[in-house]
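Title: Prediction job returns without error message
Component: structure pipeline
Severity: low
Priority: P3
Assignee: unassigned

Description:
Job completed but the reporter wants confirmation the result is attached to the right record. Sequence as submitted:
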Amino acid sequence: MKDSGTATELDLALVHALQIRPRATWAELAPSLGVAAVTLARRWERLTEQGLAWLSAVPGPSFSRTRSTAFVLLGCRPADRERLADRIAGLGEAVTVELTAPGAADLLLDVLAPDLAALHRFVGERLARLPGVTRVECLFATSLYTEGSRWRLGSLDSAQLSELGRPVPADRDTAPPVGALDAIDRELLALLALDGRLTLADLAQRVGTSAATVRRRLGRLTRSGTVAFRCDMAPSLVGLPVAVTFRCRAPAKDVNALHRTLATLPGCRLVAAVTGTTNVLATYWLPDIGAVQQRETVMCERLPSLEIADRVIGVRTVKRMGHLLDADGCRTGTQAIQVW
């Protein structure tokens, strides 16, 4: 039975450690966390079985440079919100689906596509024509400064961070150009999108090759920025149940600088430059609804040229980066991302 209301300090430390070293062995993580490797293995098994935490492969930094990303705001009839969110969650291009508080939009989507034309077709020909959709606004990402794979829980002390942050020796192979993927690469990425902790031996067996070959391929894919690994946890368990996305305007000359300040504010999940009537999008996880105003005040104080045009409050995330979630934000299933 799922115990969705509890997370120990060790659970939080473990998730933070996996955000830094997502594929480290339990034996490698044990010294910095001060417990036995078998204890960490049991803890992770409990967290994943109950949907409280998960780790998976996601598009890496090169995706935003070589593929297309957009944030789509949909309006719909009130009675259609839940049904529409569930239907869109079944579409592979819509990697994140969030129900929002009534306002300028009813749903907020993250959409990934191989190119601008494919993204336009998906939004204009599929989303816009769904029964119940009354309004579509598409914000194309022109720069993605930070996103969920770079978010850190903040549960480890400086000594633990120092130990976990020690560089891991890399393969000497030269990473190929982004996009040079063959059938084995794609199969590995599909498996890791379901479970980013699969061992080299498990992966080798499933794709029919050797562990050494899998290791070399994963090293190439990660160094080239084709893939990253992301460890997430149900927001309520980390004390950050309120998600807010600020739609902002800033002078074009300031956009490439202000993202540094926005990304360092606590709880930052996303900072992107986008097209449309506003040109900056920033998402935060916050402890309560009152913190929305506090965050806005800090943003405006530190960035005088920034104008906040709208605040989109997330009510429930139905799908996050390919993972299906229940009303408590716990994972119930996965629809693997297949955008590489």
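Comment from assignee: result matches the submitted record. The radius of gyration is 20 Å.
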